[in-house]
Amino acid sequence: MVANVIEVEGLTKRYGDVLAVDGIGFVAEAGATVGLLGGNGAGKTTTIAMLLGLLLPTSGSIRVLGHDMLRDRFAALARMNFSSPYVSLPHRLTVRENLRVYGHLYNVRDTGARIAELTRELDLEPLLDRPAGQLSAGQKTRVALAKSLINRPELLLLDEPTASLDPDTGDLVRTWLERYRAETGCAILLASHNMAEVERLCSHVLMLKQGRVVDRGSPPDLLARYGRDDMEQVFLDIARDRRTSREPEPAA
Amino acid sequence: MTAAARRIWGLMYRHLALYRSSWPRLLELAYWPVLGMCIWGFTATFLTGRLGTGAAIAASALLGGVLLWEVCLRSQMGMAISFLEEMWSRNLGHVFVSPLRPWELVAALIAMSFIRMVIGVAPAILLAWVFYAFNLFALGPILVLFFVNLMTMGWWVALGVVSLILRHGAGAEPLAWSVLFGLAPFSAVFYPVAVLPAALQPVALALPSAHVFEGMRGVLTDGIVQWNHLLWAFGLNLVWLGLATLLFARQFRQARIRGALLSIGE
Q1: What value, to the nearest 5°, has the Cα angle with vertex B176 and ends B171 and B177?
Q2: Could you tell me the domains of chain A?
Q3: Which domain holds residue B68?
Q4: Are B240 and B180 in contact (CB under 8 A)?
Q5: Which of A46, A59, A101 to mutate to test the interface with B (most CBs of B within 10 A)?
Q6: Comparing C-alpha atoms, which of A53, A89, A4 is closest to residue B98?
Q7: Does some domain include residue B154?
Q8: What span, in angstroms and rounded, lies between the C-alpha atoms of A47 and A74?
Q9: Which of A87, A140, A159 to mutate to test the interface with B (most CBs of B within 10 A)?
């Protein structure tokens, strides 16, 4: 595995007059969890979409797992995966059929064994033969997570991975993600509005506002600099321009 | 199985699983071709009974036209609707961030189009043979080349439709059902190209379907294979397929620039 799983430099996306992402840069090392935080329209989804190759940047460079995403994205896509509650799996297919489809698309060897392993660990066994459309929101989120792990990704992009989950299931998922990261050295890029989740999972946080990185650091570092007890207060300080960071903002 | 073949099979499996669990969808594939054959079959029977032997040849051309047009129509709809199924299930985001290449997506859609066409048209062919004494296979081995050309035309039209959906989103959906009907009058399905006004004949002759149907009538009425028409059909299909591929590649790239792959279907 390469040391820097994600290397982003000067990433910019412009839609006409609107600057959605404005020259951001960051690095995510193997085994790290980087949190993308920011209000609605801050540029989180746009950044994730560019990292996935769904969206072409206006300028800047993206390297994922050593591959230039503008020239050679398919080599990286086979080794990464993505989960979002806002992108569905086919509703009429059963959970097993859905996971088989993605096992084939990601060329997973012994798909059946991998599905059995994932469904056991994510407590999805009783749901295997139920159509995805008949599942509760929380169950769908767990199935989407299973889909995102089908190829044992070295990079996982998660957009609000525990949205719609009850606290117990949310905790199980976070525990599972921590274990998967520790066992595999997988890097995780996480967009979340759950600040407790960010504090628990993220080793590094990028605070986005109007497409720019306005601050960054580890959660303990940010808490210390803003003199706050939790990340929610830090988030509000930045979102509402009542910033009280005691140190100058690090260079982007 | 190579990785590319496995990815193509993965997308096909997704559609086959859908049909396996939904018999109304399977029934719907054959419903319209069978219904069309019933209507035109009785019409042909009526004309033959009233007008005698001369009408029998016209009736054969009519039924042959109905069946071969269905081959083109079902191929086009099969490909475009398989793409729409992904859009309706809001699954395209997952598909486009998987290692599935755009050409593999198109290959899977073509394979599904072929399967859907066979399921749809086979009962109508059987119906024509059993109830109206019209055996499409009596056209001989040349029928394979007619099928290949009409399927290819269906695919490039569908590729154009998919490109327009990538460009205009859900607003272009109705084209999946309607666009080929717009080409039907120029395809000379039931009448020779010569019947069209002189100004429209070049339009017809630019379509591979018109050459296939001229060829079909040549075999049915005179027992002659008009190779020139078949060569034109193949050549035109190559040109149109090339243009549709360029359009698809351009619209796919434009969709990545505009961010349309994130919101398509909404």
Answers
A1: 110
A2: 1-79+154-252 (3.40.50.300), 88-152 (no CATH)
A3: 22-263
A4: no
A5: A101
A6: A53
A7: yes
A8: 18
A9: A87
In a domain, B39, yes or no: yes
The burial of B157, by beta-carbon neighbours within 10 Å (0-12 exposed, 13-18 middle, 19 or more buried), is given as buried
| Biggest CA-to-CA distance, chain A | 55
Question: Residue A10 — φ and ψ, nearest 5°?
Answer: 55, 35
Q: Structurally, how many domains does chain B consist of? A: 1
Whether residue A53 and residue B90 make contact (CB cut-off 8 A), yes or no, is no
Tens of pLDDT, residue by residue over A105-142, are: 999 999 999 999 999 988 899 999 999 999 988 888 88
If we measure between CA atoms, which residue out of B21, B116, B26, B95 comes closest to residue A101? B95
The A-side interface with B (CB below 8 A) comprises: 15, 45-46, 49, 52-56, 74, 77-78, 81-82, 84, 87-94, 97, 100-107, 131, 147
Residues of chain B neighbouring A131 (CB-CB closer than 8 A): 21
> What does residue A15 show for φ and ψ, rounded to 5 degrees?
-110, 100
Q: Comparing C-alpha atoms, which of A81, A103, A95 is closest to residue B1?
A: A103
Q: Which residues in chain B touch residue A89, judged by CB atoms under 8 angstroms apart?
A: 89, 91, 94
The better pLDDT of the pair A164, B154 is held by: B154
The verdict on residue B179 lying in a domain is: yes
Question: Which helix (DSSP H) or strand (DSSP E) does residue A244 occupy?
Answer: none
- Which has more confidence, B241 or A123? B241
What is the interface pTM, i.e. ipTM, of the complex?
A: 0.88
Dist. CA B83–CA B87, nearest whole Å: 7
Q: Which residues fall within 8 angstroms of residue A30, CB to CB, at 6 or more apart?
A: A1, A2, A3, A4, A5, A154, A185, A186, A187
Distance from C-alpha of A51 to C-alpha of A111, rounded to nearest angstrom: 26
B23-54 pLDDT tens trace: 898 999 999 999 999 999 999 999 888 887 77
- What's the sign of the alpha-carbon dihedral B89, A133, B8, B233? negative
H or E stretch covering B7: helix B3-20
**How many CB atoms lie under 10 A from the CB of residue A60?**
17
Whether B124 maps to a domain, the answer reads yes
